[in-house]
Design brief:
The protein has 14 helices and 18 strands. The protein is α+β, with helices and mostly antiparallel strands.
Length: 485
């Protein structure tokens, strides 16, 4: 064989290898697109849902709280559930309108209260003649009978890194500061190094330079107090709510942070609710389960109807076509591919006709709803498969589930005292036996003992049986249902 033929064979081999690689890459890309479109779930969980209502035209200027989170080294957004925010912009004025938003937003910080070590509260003066940068003098600030410590060390750090001289004052009576202090104290107590910064409009560049080093660390949180008072006219509102915004945006860009809007709420909706922040100040912060209920409630409010439509379509597909519905991304909101746990109950003439649930958020909530509706209709071993003539009489109830919290107890009597009547769902485990009651089961039972006894029966135990080896977990649920299908 001539060298020319050998070279030709070698070129053909290279071309064939390239074609094979291209074909494999194309096949991989097609598979990826199919997977993303039909199968995959988003990594986020609906239990950590942050409500964003994009249709703000029907609102006055909305009350909003905004968190800023970092990107990782690959330039991808770090999930809000995996890290604490570096910057927090929160309303402080017009509690008639913003109080619910403020309370919910501060409670969102609870999981990070031990991670965050340094908190700086920043407010801007509305007085155009105010031209200094002030810090609160170090020492104790008394908030609702509790002492909050203004850190001398953090004050010294701020002054050391500034090119201008600070004025040291007692800033606790300034509205943008005083109305944030009780909530900061409630979340963090005296565990943090705390400082207060109050500046004039012409000092924005200096303050930005001063704060820039602080946003790099997960141990630091900058809280920007923004006036969003409800008594403003719309024009005044826009001007007031823009306070600190340019400074925040510049800081976020330099520190490579991205924003997540915590909540957008209609002024009129909040004004109608009897929910006063002044009452909340002395309450205990929300537990993790209660925070998840807040998130699931917001999720249900915005996306419950679409979820319910998936359940109804899945029900008819299961009964009429004997198939399981597979929601597709091109026709389903992306947020419904966030992971979630759901329990589906089917009722006929007010009697249970089938049920199925996923106790853990292992897949997209859209898939979980479709799959469990199918299972409740045709796979529940306690009932025969639903027939087409029954469809018009079936009512669907779905329950979005929070995570689980283990209940420690000394004996059965102690456990019964710890149950929260009406709101606790319960899971009990004894060896290989497991039973679950949704919170809605409380409607059927008059007492915690009756509730627990019937759960024992469902689990395969005698009502009189008890062992301190039984593991007990509580959870909460947000129910979605309609009077008619």
């Amino acid at each position: 064989m001539s060298s020319e033929d050998e070279n030709m064979d070698e070129k053909n081999k290279i071309i064939n290898i390239i074609l094979i690689i291209v074909a494999l890459m194309a096949l991989g890309w097609v598979n990826y697109l199919y997977f993303a479109k039909h199968i995959s779930s988003n990594p986020e969980r609906i239990n950590n849902f942050i409500a964003i209502d994009n249709n703000v035209d029907k609102f006055r200027i909305p009350v909003s709280s905004v968190f800023f989170y970092p990107y990782n080294k690959q330039g991808k957004k770090i999930l809000a559930s995996q890290t604490n925010p570096r910057i927090f912009v929160v309303p402080y004025s017009g509690y008639l309108y913003s109080e619910q938003n403020v309370a919910k937003a501060y409670n969102w910080l609870l999981p990070w209260k031990d991670t965050i070590k340094n908190v700086v509260l920043i407010a801007q003066s509305k007085d155009k003649n105010f031209s200094t940068i002030n810090i609160n003098k170090a020492g104790k600030l008394e908030i609702n009978g509790k002492n909050m410590i203004v850190s001398k060390g953090l004050n010294e750090f701020l002054q050391k890194n500034s090119e201008v001289k600070f004025r040291v004052e007692d800033l606790s009576n300034i509205a943008g500061i005083s109305q944030q202090l009780p909530l900061i104290s409630q979340i963090f107590g005296s565990k943090i190094n705390f400082a207060v910064l109050y500046y004039g409009a012409n000092q924005t560049a200096q303050v930005e330079k001063l704060l820039c080093p602080l946003v790099q660390s997960k141990h630091n949180l900058l809280i920007f107090s923004a006036d969003m008072s409800g008594h403003y006219t719309e024009g005044e509102q826009k001007e007031a709510s823009s306070e600190n915004i340019d400074l925040v945006v510049n800081l976020a860009q330099k520190a490579h942070l991205y924003p997540k809007i915590f909540d957008l709420v209609n002024f009129e909706d909040i004004a109608e609710q009897n929910y006063r922040l002044s009452e909340l100040k002395n309450d205990k912060p929300l537990t993790t389960l209660e925070q998840e209920v807040e998130s699931l409630t917001a999720f249900a409010r915005l996306h419950g109807e679409e979820l319910f439509n998936i359940a109804m379509e899945s029900l008819s597909t299961a009964v009429l076509k004997k198939k399981q519905l597979k929601p597709e991304r091109e026709t389903t909101s992306d947020v419904l591919f966030n992971r979630g746990a759901v329990y589906i109950n089917l009722y006929k003439d007010n009697a249970l006709r089938g049920s199925s649930g996923s106790l853990l958020p292992s897949q997209a909530i859209a898939f979980a709803v479709a799959q469990n509706t199918y299972s409740a209709a045709v796979e529940d071993k306690d009932f025969p498969p639903l027939q087409p003539e029954e469809l018009s009489k079936i009512k669907i109830k779905m329950s979005l589930l929070t995570g689980y919290e283990k209940i420690s107890y000394q004996d059965e009597a102690d456990l019964l005292k710890k149950l929260q009547i009406g709101s606790d769902g319960l899971v009990i485990r004894d060896g290989n036996r497991q039973g679950i009651f949704l919170p809605s089961e409380w409607k059927q039972y008059a007492s915690p003992q009756e509730f627990l006894n019937n759960l024992k029966i469902k689990t395969g135990m005698s009502p009189a049986y008890w062992s301190n080896q039984i593991k007990v977990y509580r959870f909460k649920a947000v129910e979605i249902s309609k009077d008619e299908n």
